[in-house]
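Example 4.3 (complexes with small molecules)
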Amino acid sequence: MLEIRKINVKYGQREVIHDLSLEVPAGGVVTLIGSNGAGKTTVLKTVSGLLRPTSGSILFEGRPIEKAEPHAIIEAGVVHIPEGRLLFKDMSVAEHIELGTIRAHAGGRTREQRLEWVHELFPILWERRQQKAGTLSGGQQQMLAIARGIMANPKCLMLDEPSLGLAPILVDQLADAIRSLNENGITILLVEQRVDLALRLADRGYVIETGRVVLEDKASALLENPRVKEAYLGA
Ligand SMILES: Nc1ncnc2c1ncn2[C@@H]1O[C@H](COP(=O)(O)OP(=O)(O)OP(=O)(O)O)[C@@H](O)[C@H]1O
Ligand SMILES: [Mg+2]
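Answer. The structure with adenosine-5'-triphosphate bound is encoded below.
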């Protein structure tokens, strides 16, 4: 569904992603693992059109998107939930949810169906629909960021550090929500500091170090891989 082929990405003169290839099959959950600064966010930003690769290509459903505008990439069905949530603190929950629909991918669930789905997944957002985003708790803000993404009707959802700053009970809820999105047909590309959680949610994982893929395997195999255990699972 999403295929990254040998991309290189630079900030100014400095190349931070080198010949990186990655594949996310339709219906799958793929996780991208790596230490701070490895290049995970850069990869997601490049897929969503916020950065341009200097070479290589990115295909979504067989079509090249590496030169497409960010809004066109969303309309094609690839939606990025950024690190740090990027909410507008003075806008209400309901306004954020509405914002998500502006560039929605056409087809599949209707706007009303998505709205119902979002409130089923995150009932608290319905209760708090008039509240300003800036006054929500960290966990609620993360749910709102995901809800806004769902309203864009994604085929493929890219999540960057969704569990960041969440209490353990909220991390469990978030994991359930990600599972439920996937069971309802959304393909997932997940970047997550909690590598054990990421590998439990994913079918496959890629390990990147300083902008290169150094390991790729089934998630279950990566959980048992000594190198992964030592570097990312604290074992
Ligand atoms: N806007 C920018 N300008 C210059 N360099 C950048 C910029 N954003 C990121 N970098 C550099 O690119 C490299 C990759 O950063 P990136 O944010 O993709 O890492 P990451 O894997 O997401 O890390 P983290 O786990 O800390 O979020 C780092 O060396 C970082 O310092
Ligand atoms: Mg990052």
